[in-house]
Design a protein that fits this description.
This protein has 240 residues and is α/β, with parallel strands linked by helices. Helices cover 47% and strands 15% of the residues. The protein is built from nine helices and eight strands. It has a five-stranded parallel sheet with strand order 2-6-1-7-8, with helices on both faces.
């Protein structure tokens, strides 16, 4: 199956893909909302974070010295990462291999954020791969620089946010549901520090694109957010 199969539309010659870009700070619920809207509106959900994790997995498999930036860049330059659907499940494909089962380890997660994603040349390669996916698929993509960098010509751009307090309490309750005790004040402080880092990083800082629709979810339920964004997709021309 290809990225645009399983009921999703592949673009023919002369047709423009319908792309939705969702940006916003950590804890805003971007991935949850994007997945739900993708299913409702018959779009491909492109998990950019999973694609970065796949790149990190490749670097680890190659046994690269994590201090050797040139080696890491060389490995990443030749990588082919895409997303397809198999039996309704999103599959991340690294050089032809389904690597879903290897992406959620703590080691991969830590190295993705601390090493691999911070290298400009790696980000350039990832942007190219993400743009290739978007060029041939009607898709929704979320992150921190999608509307401003990856898909600047997306049909619809959304900046999804909520107050740091609301995001912290959502996270607190998520942890509580798993039986994990935590400190809401500490969670909020961590979120605010992450916001500052994301907004002030040198490469593709987090910011709202000039033509993005601001959706503040502080007083909204998940269902309400899904409904609002699905309606924005329809108004922009999506036809599920």
């Amino acid at each position: 199956m290809t990225a645009a199969s399983g009921g999703r539309r592949r673009k023919g010659m002369g047709h423009m893909s319908f792309n939705v870009a969702i940006d916003g700070p950590a804890g805003a619920g971007k991935s949850t909302i994007a997945r739900a809207v993708a299913k409702k509106m018959n779009l491909i959900y492109v998990d950019t974070g999973a694609m970065y994790r796949a790149m990190t997995l490749l670097v680890l498999r190659e046994g690269a010295d994590l201090q050797d930036k040139e080696k890491i860049v060389g490995i990443c330059r030749g990588a082919k990462i895409t997303i397809r659907y198999e039996d309704g499940e999103q599959v991340v494909v690294l050089n032809g291999e389904n690597v879903n089962g290897f992406l959620r380890t703590e080691e991969v997660g830590n190295l993705t954020s601390s090493v691999v994603s911070r290298i400009p040349e790696v980000r350039e390669r990832m942007v190219k791969l993400q743009q290739e996916l978007a060029a041939c698929s009607d898709c929704i993509m979320d992150g921190r620089d999608i509307g401003t960098c990856v898909l600047p010509d997306a049909r619809l751009k959304i900046y999804l946010t909520a107050s740091s307090r609301v995001r912290a309490m959502r996270r607190y309750h998520e942890l509580l549901d798993r039986g994990v005790e935590s400190d809401p004040e500490k969670i909020q402080k961590d979120i605010e520090e992450r916001d500052y880092q994301d907004m002030h990083r040198e490469i593709s800082p987090l910011r709202q694109a000039e033509d993005a629709v601001l959706v503040d979810t502080s007083e909204m339920s998940v269902e309400e957010v899904i409904s609002v964004i699905s309606q924005l997709c329809r108004e922009a021309g999506a036809a599920p």
